Amino acid sequence: MKDSPASAPRVNWKDPQLAATLRARHARERRLKILGLLSLGAAFAMLFILLASLAASGYKAFVQTHVTMDFVISARNVNPENPEKGKYRKVIAESLQAVFPEVGRKEMRQLRKILSNGAQYMVRDAVVADPSLIGGVLRLTVPVSDPYDQLNKGEIDRTTPESNRRLSDREIAWFDRLKEAGMISTPFNKALFLNADSRFPELAGLKGALWGSFYALLVCFLLSFPLGIGAAIWLEEFAPKNRFTDIIEVNINNLAAVPSVVFGLLALAVFLGWFNLPRSAAFVGGMTLALMTLPTIIIATRAALKAVPPSIREAALGLGASRQQVVFGHVLPLAMPGILTGTIIGLAQALGETAPLLLIGMNAFITSAPESAFEPATALPTQIFIWADSPERGFAARTSAAILVLLGFLITMNLAAVILRRKFERKW
Amino acid sequence: MLWLTFLIIVAAAALAYVLNLRAARRLWAEGARLHSITTFHALYALFLAALPAFVFVVLWLALSGPVIGALVLSGLPDEVRAGATAAQENLLLSEIRSLARGQAFGEPEPWKAAAAARLTALEATEGWARLALVSLIAAAGLIYARTRVSASFRARQRVERIINGLMVFCSLVAIFTTIGIVASLFVESMRFFARVPFFEFLFGTNWEPQIPIREDQVAGAGAFGWLPVLLGTMVITVVALVVALPIGLFSAIYLNEFASPRLRAVAKPVLEILAGVPTVVYGFFAVLVVAPALRQAGQALGVDVSPNTALAAGGTMGIMLIPFISSFTDDALSAVPRSLRDGSLALGATRGETVAKVLFPAAIPGIVGGVLLAVSRAIGETMIVVMAAGLIARMTINPLDSVTTVTVQIVTLLIGDTAFDNPKTLAAFALGMMLFLVTLGVNIVALRVVRKYRELYD
């Protein structure tokens, strides 16, 4: 075999032309790499900006400016026989007068606005709970109204001209006097979690929305979990391969991609229109979310069932178990971690879903937390939508705070799913 | 009352289970050779006691409301009912309902108060009747199941058939949902097209549903043409893709080809976070950050940017779609057979050349499928545009202008409005049907493209 080429023509790497091409090719390679890194960086930067801007505008809503004052509960204003019907506006005015003796009657109207509108009800509730206060002095910490809260948090610039400011120089001076007297404090904003919605930002909280979301997710879980597992088991383990099952499978895949607002239209026309179910109720919201979560759970369950090796099935069948005994006694328990992971992820999606809830009226203004799933309620995402639409400055911070709470729940749920998967995942 | 009903069912089921279990065990202890193990006898009783009663309650609850309503209406004085349309009757009924719940505004007319009292009485009767019937049905199931316990009874087959039926029902829920969607959209749209001609809706270039429509007016002549709404949707979708496509594609290429496994392990979940953020959060972000930033940038450049510009809504939507496109591209690139990649590298191509000239072309069908799915997401996306896009429909393709989308119109037309006989409300269902059809079409094409491409290499 002498005639086989001893060596291919050697490449002369020193050839300037070749070197130039190679340089150009490597430069292109570098450019592609840089472009890729830049896009990845851009995506990360956007996530960072998103979270940072929410945190920056939301963290201030987790504290609330309060004022600690002595409220003089005179028997003249509050009748000991009937403390609920007392003139608590007057109590507040007189108590403020004690702090600012020089303020006249006319200015009093202005001065009274330092305290939140809810202050009179807090004083009333304290007095009703303890009628022995009548005739004495009640020391109570109440929230200040939104403009003063903004001032205390540095959101109102004192250097802007008075006419463009929400608070006049005099009002700022009043607040500063309270502050110098040590009556102002900014504790953790418990009201954000313990109050329901309100027209006044300083009183508005998420209690109603949290309960509404809880009920809706509960209904969603109770419906979609058994239905999803049943459908997945049948399709994966028992269904014959024919046109009918094909249609069901295509159907489920298509449902997963139907826009959420269309589910809202379905709920509006069918649940509210045809079945006359109550509007704004968490129950209806939960049913709608269940229909949307169903495909997610079915797909996750089928994947989990598929991952169980056939040897388990064959062993059980070999010992004389029926096909259903095999599935319910052996395959399903082994697939459970995967199913639960998929379910949690599906529920997390449902928790963030807004559009269908808007269409069934879960964006109503409701000032008390729902007692059951059949009462009008809001949900976390719809509460965010309501607050985002509110013009008061205080609601902007609360919207961000509500979003942080929602994201907190989502992160917890997804972490739970990840941990579940890590802990129970079996490699066969 | 409702809880009591379900409590009865649960108690009957538990009782039936225990009774049959004990009966079967006794047989077994007496030395009989049972066909089915005792648990199946017990389960058989459980299903027989609970299932018919449960189905009955659900049907009863679904049907009793309308029946009671009809009964109350038929008891109203004739002069009230004469000439009332179905919608007016519905309104009357809900008024009576809230009256019965004690929410009266002012002094109700005596006939209304009487109707409310009758409603309360009917509802009480309904509750007791439901309770009695449920107890009866559950007891019948329980007793029948108990009489069937015998050595030769094939309880396992019976139970398995019931469970199979239940599972088939679960699978059918998906079909029912689709049928429900199609039926509700179709029925309401037909009512809309009975008032507004179909072709006017399809080809009209003027969308002004806010104009109040009176009885004596020809229903919104020219006011319900969906083309400007469609155009707005397309503008926003295009803006979203312009943001998402390059970023998603290049990050996927980098992650797939150049990134170290460690970066990949971190970057993929971080990108997924972007997909997991609820859209209402993106909407607020668009209003809080993106729109003011664009406005300031516009002022610096001397361009007039409208406050709810398509750019802000579309751009934010683009951020949301990045992980969608990148993960589809990543999957498609990874699915290209190893031999193609190795062949290209062996011929001396750099990694970049391999991606750009071999892998990418081979992966294009999969990527196109992913992009199409992203398009359908963008068309159907609601909250971002509801919060950040405009309300007025304009025939414009200028992304700096304020445009509106199909989903925005659906939501704004339906928020707080429940009267179903108003073209304004019905228009939302017509738009919903178009939305459903368009996204369905795009999805079907996308899934077909993806599947075909998978078959290519399998």
What are the salient characteristics of this protein?
heterodimer; A: mainly alpha; MetI-like fold; three-stranded antiparallel β-sheet; flat; B: 458 residues; mainly alpha
Layout of strands and helices, then pairs:
The complex is a heterodimer of chains A (428) and B (458).
Chain A: H1 16-58, E1 66-72, H2 88-99, H3 105-111, H4 119-129, E2 137-143, H5 146-152, H6 169-180, E3 184-185, H7 191-194, H8 207-238, H9 243-256, H10 260-274, H11 282-307, H12 310-318, H13 323-352, H14 355-359, H15 380-389, H16 393-424
Antiparallel strand pairs in A: 1-2, 1-3
Helix pairs in contact in A: 1-16, 2-4, 8-11, 8-13, 8-15, 9-11, 10-11, 11-13, 12-13, 13-16, 15-16
Chain B: H1 2-29, H2 38-74, H3 78-81, H4 86-100, H5 110-147, H6 155-195, H7 198-203, H8 227-258, H9 261-276, H10 279-301, H11 310-335, H12 338-346, H13 351-380, H14 383-388, H15 406-414, H16 423-457
Brief overview, please?
The complex is a heterodimer of chains A (428) and B (458). With 428 residues, chain A is mainly alpha-helical.
The helicity of chain B comes to over 70%
User: What fraction of the residues of chain B are assigned to beta strands by DSSP?
Assistant: under 5%
Gyration radius over CA of chain B: 31 Å
Class of the largest domain in chain A, according to the CATH hierarchy?
A: Mainly Alpha
Strand content of chain A: under 5%
- Name the assembly state: heterodimer
* Broad structural category of chain A: mainly alpha
Number of self-contained structural domains of chain A: 2
Most extensive chain-chain interface: A-B, 87 and 92 residues
Q: What does the largest sheet of chain B look like?
A: none
Dominant shape of chain B: flat
Class derived from helix and strand content of chain B:
mainly alpha
What does this structure look like?
The complex is a heterodimer of chains A (428) and B (458). Chain A contains 16 helices and 3 strands. Chain A has 428 residues and is mostly helical. Chain A has 2 domains: 61-189, no CATH class; 207-424, MetI-like fold. In chain A, helix 1 (16-58) crosses helix 16, helix 11 crosses helix 13 and helix 13 (323-352) runs antiparallel to helix 16. Chain A is flat and about 105 Å long. Chain B folds into 2 domains: 2-153, no CATH class; 227-457, MetI-like fold (Orthogonal Bundle), CATH 1.10.3720.10. Chain B has helices at 2-29, 38-74, 78-81, 86-100, 110-147, 155-195, 198-203, 227-258, 261-276, 279-301, 310-335, 338-346, 351-380, 383-388, 406-414, 423-457. In chain B, helix 8 packs antiparallel against helix 13 and helix 10 packs across helix 11. Chain B starts with a helix and ends with a helix.
